[in-house]
């Protein structure tokens, strides 16, 4: 168990900065997710933590001790690879015991710990199989068992669920989270799947172009993102430009073409400033409620099962609106919508 | 994608570390490359120098084109080059046709495919001399075919030691088809089935698929295999020396005679340089073609 | 391809199989059988046209192999040289192949060309160069000289196969091992070497067979004192009056081990290794 800290980590590949002054702190036992689009530098950051890539600049600290000069095999991190990287010439139990053998533990202890790990991931019967004789989901569990059995200070995951089908992915997601909480091990998890990030993490670090643009709890990054790219990456959102009309104790009122909307003013918002608001489709309600209500016309409707996704036009602005239940509305229908009681102010591009 | 990128070792490193890494590279490369430098490059350079009269053995050294003039003036030498080119080309073309057919058919599942895929590789491990012997027992005047035809009063043409080198080509084809087939099958099995299936789905007959999809996509393998076989056969010694006629003879046979019978290292070196230069030119042309192909595919 | 696109349905496949087996027996099996028969011809009865099969068979030629010293000596010579050449090639190719397969090299193109050269160069050209060089070094007509020349032509195959094998090890596996605490030596012993073992085995086999078969360089450098089986075969087939019966015996002695090795190793001698050896110019 340990506290992990990255300080100004930078890594360039030629002209590409795969990690650009990345600074993150992960508390003891915390589950942090690095979330971002493909090529944003998540894997690079993870591999720097594991010591598989040397940073050009910056420090990696474990419990306050700089470890960036330690070779990979002495880092006491354990990684679950996207490809699982199971050794094809070793059985399941040999794979799981590998890290313990490297630490020269006694054969008895290794057998005992491997048995525990197998039980933990519910693979007891498969200990003598070879990786090629396992399904994708089983291979994934072996990879997890192999990582946790060494009792690492930090557990690292690089998109461990991305090779599995949707159903299994969802189930294993829950199992992983439960396992991590049971072990209480500090964890850094890489994914480009926002749903996964939100479901698993204590905190999410959103990365773009090698930079960490935002860190917060799943609720914070989803509901009140600070960066426009975060809002965009974490699902469907509405952007609305406006001018700050009033500021008071952490809140402000923004004058938009559609009317007044209240927003969180955490970022030193000034009177008269032009800002962009972001709010989720499910925060817009169909019908007249307390708050700013406007009339609009349905341009397009798609039924998604749990919600219906409407594209609504009002005063030359199109908004996405999600309604759970409710009557089906046809394109062309006039409706009244109520803007959310509070929205997020986002900055950048 | 991320995996592919991750597989590339890091490029940016501190200078001291980089120097250390280069030293490791050199140390690792030294045994294999050092050996080749000493036992291949040095003798090769000697051959080239000797072909210009330098480093001569048992004669005064002096730069001269005399040896080349001698080669060009001598009908036996000239004919040996032409003859070698002739059977190398013949062997390559025939082997290519046969191995294209074989490897395309080997992509199809059929009963006993595994056995065939082992059997066809037998010639790979058969020494050329053994191949010559085996084929000799079949196609020679006293061979099995001639014997089988005799009762019916049918004659069997002279295939061994004949002017046209048919026996030579036959044995060389026997020996080279498996080499080409190994290369071509590897390339063909690398073509995604989706692509051939898509072509089928778009209405192409099996032959059209072969002609318009499989062959073009195998082109890198085809050209590499052809080049390899051509150059290999062009300098072949044992089979032409055993199965060839007294005249014309292969260039390698002429060279061995110069060396072994006359100890005329100079002339052999001139011939060797010609063979090497020809191979090098072919290799160069091949690389140019490949480069263009790769550029076109990008 | 579970659905053949060339011939649909079972009858087509059986036809294809029939075709393949017919061609294989005419082109491969019959010559082998005739070769065996020649080695079993009774020297007293001979095997003269128009007999399709020898009038009587005997083991006389095989007994002669033990009686005729040169066959036994050539056999011993071949099987003395092959393991030495294999060991030498392995020792030289391991580090170099590792570097080519796993490290970022600046002059990679040039190095690859250098390794390719002996495969492309006609043996007779190399023999001409090495022949005169070895005369000067006093290596001509010696076993050491023959070992050295054979290594020149076989080393490139070994290097290429070793390099391809090392290249084929996924980086993730190495990273995973390091991540789990493997320092360089255990990493090599427990992960890298087990993963490359089939490739190294294939390379060794390739080299061993290659050495048994090598003729031109052995002939020119070793003549007439170092006589391996192929050199003897050449003598029986062309050099002196051809002695088919002895040639057949030598042929079998050369063929049987290589074919057995090939069948045994079929699973390890994967297409990739062969293609790495021959293909990819
Ligand atoms: N070894 C390398 N050599 C050169 N460039 C690299 C290397 N590794 C990564 N990169 C580059 O660095 C950038 C970040 O790569 P990284 O693998 O960290 O992305 P990622 O966020 O994990 O993406 P993905 O979600 O696709 O896995 C990319 O532009 C990539 O091309
Ligand atoms: Mg990645």
User: What is the terminal separation of chain C in angstroms?
Assistant: 28 Å
Q: Which term fits the overall shape of chain B?
A: globular
Low-confidence stretches of chain B: 1-13
Percent of residues in beta strands of chain C? under 5%
- Tell me about the largest β-sheet of chain C: none
Helix content of chain C: over 70%
CATH 2nd-level architecture of the largest domain in chain B: Orthogonal Bundle
Which molecules are bound in this entry?
Answer: adenosine-5'-triphosphate, magnesium ion
CATH architecture of the largest domain in chain C: Orthogonal Bundle
Classification by helices and strands of chain C:
mainly alpha
Gyration radius over CA of chain B: 24 Å
- Please tell me the total number of domains of chain B: 2
The global form of chain C is globular
Largest interface: B-C, 108 and 102 residues
CATH level-four homologous superfamily name of the largest domain in chain C: MetI-like
What are the secondary-structure elements of chain C, in order, as H or E? HHHHHHHHHHHH
InterPro entries (chain A): AAA+_ATPase, ABC_SmlMolc_Importer, ABC_transporter-like_ATP-bd, ABC_transporter-like_CS, Mo/tungstate-bd_C_term_dom, NA-bd_OB-fold, P-loop_NTPase, Transp-assoc_OB_typ2
Domain ABC transporter (chain A): 4-234
Pfam families (chain A): ABC_tran, TOBE_2
GO molecular function, one term (chain A): ATP binding
Structure description:
The complex is a heterotrimer of chains A (349), B (298) and C (281). Chain A is of the alpha+beta class and 349 residues long. Helices cover 24% and strands 36% of the residues of chain A. Chain A has eight helices and 20 strands. A six-stranded mixed β-sheet of chain A has the order 6-7-8-3-9-10, with helices on both faces. In chain A, a hairpin with a 2-residue loop joins β9 and β10. The mean pLDDT of chain A is 91. Chain B folds into two domains: 17-51, no CATH class; 75-297, MetI-like fold. The two termini of chain B are 17 Å apart. In chain B, 45% of the residues are buried. The model of chain B is unreliable at 1-13 (pLDDT under 50). Chain C contains twelve helices and no strands. Chain C folds into two domains: 2-61, no CATH class; 70-276, MetI-like fold (Orthogonal Bundle), CATH 1.10.3720.10. Chain C has 281 residues and is mainly α. The chains are: A alpha+beta (349), B mainly alpha (298), C mainly alpha (281). Bound molecules: adenosine-5'-triphosphate (ATP) and magnesium ion (MG). Adenosine-5'-triphosphate sits between chains A (13, 16, 18, 36, 38-44, 192) and B (1-2, 5-6, 8, 10). Chain C: This is ABC transporter permease. Chain C: It is found in: Cell inner membrane; Cell membrane. Chain C: It comes from Candidatus Segetimicrobium genomatis.
């Amino acid at each position: 168990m340990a506290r992990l800290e990255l300080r100004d980590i930078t890594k360039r590949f030629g002209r590409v900065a795969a990690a650009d002054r990345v600074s993150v702190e992960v508390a003891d036992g915390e589950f942090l997710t690095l979330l971002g689009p493909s090529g944003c530098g998540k894997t690079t950051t993870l591999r720097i933590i594991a010591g598989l890539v040397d940073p050009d600049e910056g420090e990696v600290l474990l419990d306050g001790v700089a470890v960036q000069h330690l070779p990979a095999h002495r880092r006491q991190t354990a990684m679950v690879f996207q490809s699982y990287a199971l050794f094809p010439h070793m059985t399941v139990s040999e794979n799981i015991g590998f890290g313990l053998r490297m630490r020269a533990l006694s054969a008895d202890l290794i057998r005992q710990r491997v048995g525990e790990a197998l039980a933990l991931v519910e693979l007891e019967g498969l200990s003598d199989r070879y990786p090629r004789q396992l399904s994708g989901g089983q291979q994934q569990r072996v990879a997890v068992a192999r990582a946790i059995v060494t009792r690492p200070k930090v557990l690292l995951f690089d998109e461990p669920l991305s090779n599995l089908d949707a159903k299994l992915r969802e189930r294993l997601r829950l199992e992983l989270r439960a396992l991590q909480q049971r072990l209480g091990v500090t964890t850094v998890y890489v994914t480009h799947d926002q749903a996964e990030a939100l479901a698993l993490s204590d905190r999410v670090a959103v990365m773009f172009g090698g930079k960490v643009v935002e860190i917060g709890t799943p609720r914070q990054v989803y509901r009140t993102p600070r960066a426009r790219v975060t809002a965009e990456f974490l699902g469907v959102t509405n952007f609305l430009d406006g001018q700050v009309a009033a500021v008071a104790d952490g809140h402000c009122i923004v004058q938009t073409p559609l009317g007044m909307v209240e927003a969180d003013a955490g970022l030193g918002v000034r009177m008269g400033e032009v800002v962009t608001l972001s709010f989720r489709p499910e925060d817009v309600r169909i019908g007249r409620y307390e708050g700013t209500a406007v009339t609009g016309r349905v341009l397009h409707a798609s039924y998604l099962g749990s919600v219906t996704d409407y594209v609504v036009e009002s005063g030359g602005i199109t908004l996405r609106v999600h309604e759970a239940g409710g009557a089906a509305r046809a394109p062309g229908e006039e409706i009244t919508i109520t803007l959310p009681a509070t929205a997020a102010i986002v900055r950048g591009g | 994608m991320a995996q592919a990128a991750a597989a590339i070792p890091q490029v940016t490193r501190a200078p001291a570390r980089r120097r250390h890494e280069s030293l490791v590279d050199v140390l690792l490369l030294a045994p294999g490359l050092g050996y080749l430098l000493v036992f291949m490059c040095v003798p090769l350079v000697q051959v080239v120098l000797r072909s210009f009269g330098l480093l001569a053995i048992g004669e005064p050294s002096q730069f001269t084109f005399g040896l080349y003039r001698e080669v060009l003036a001598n009908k036996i030498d000239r004919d040996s080059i032409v003859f070698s080119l002739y059977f190398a080309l013949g062997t390559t073309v025939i082997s290519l046709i046969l191995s294209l057919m074989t490897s395309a058919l080997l992509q199809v599942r059929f009963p006993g495919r595994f056995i065939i895929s082992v059997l066809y590789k037998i010639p790979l491990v058969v020494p050329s001399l053994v191949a010559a012997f085996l084929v000799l027992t079949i196609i020679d005047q006293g061979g099995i075919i001639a014997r089988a035809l005799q009762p019916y009063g049918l004659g069997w043409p002279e295939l061994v030691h004949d002017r046209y080198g048919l026996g030579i080509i036959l044995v060389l084809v026997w020996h080279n088809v498996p080499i080409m087939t190994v290369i071509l099958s590897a390339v063909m099995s690398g073509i995604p089935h989706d692509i051939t299936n898509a072509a089928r789905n778009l209405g192409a007959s099996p032959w059209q698929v072969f002609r318009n999809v499989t062959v073009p996509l195998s082109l890198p393998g085809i050209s590499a295999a052809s080049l390899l076989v051509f150059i290999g056969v062009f300098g072949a010694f044992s089979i032409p020396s055993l199965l060839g006629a007294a005249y014309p003879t292969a260039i390698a046979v002429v060279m061995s005679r110069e060396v072994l019978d006359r100890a005329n290292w100079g002339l052999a070196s001139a011939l060797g340089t010609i063979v090497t230069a020809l191979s090098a030119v072919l290799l160069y042309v091949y690389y140019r073609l490949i480069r263009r192909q790769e550029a076109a595919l990008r | 391809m579970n659905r053949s696109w060339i011939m649909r349905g079972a009858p087509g496949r059986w036809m294809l199989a029939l075709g393949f087996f017919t061609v294989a027996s005419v082109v491969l099996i019959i010559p082998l059988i005739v070769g065996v028969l020649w080695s079993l011809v009774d020297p007293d009865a001979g095997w003269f046209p128009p007999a399709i099969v020898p009038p009587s068979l005997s083991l006389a030629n095989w007994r002669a192999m033990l009686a005729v010293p040169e066959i036994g000596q050539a056999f011993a010579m071949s099987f003395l040289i092959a393991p030495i050449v294999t060991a030498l090639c392995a020792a030289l190719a391991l580090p170099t192949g590792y570097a080519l397969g796993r490290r970022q090299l600046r002059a990679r193109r040039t190095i690859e060309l250098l390794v390719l050269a002996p495969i492309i160069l006609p043996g007779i050209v190399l023999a001409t160069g090495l022949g005169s060089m070895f005369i000067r070094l006093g290596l001509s007509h010696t076993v050491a000289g023959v070992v050295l020349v054979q290594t020149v032509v076989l080393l490139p195959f070994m290097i290429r196969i070793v390099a391809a094998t090392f290249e084929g090890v996924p980086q993730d596996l190495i990273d995973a091992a390091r991540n789990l605490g493997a320092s360089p030596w255990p990493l090599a012993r427990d992960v890298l070497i087990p993963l490359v073992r089939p490739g190294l085995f294939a390379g060794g086999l390739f080299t061993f067979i290659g050495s048994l078969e090598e003729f031109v360089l052995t002939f020119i450098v070793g003549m007439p004192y170092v006589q391996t089986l192929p050199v003897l075969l050449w003598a029986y087939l062309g050099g002196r009056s051809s002695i088919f019966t002895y040639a057949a015996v030598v042929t079998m002695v050369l063929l049987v081990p290589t074919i057995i090795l090939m069948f045994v190793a079929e699973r390890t001698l994967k297409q990739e290794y062969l293609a790495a050896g021959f293909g990819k110019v």
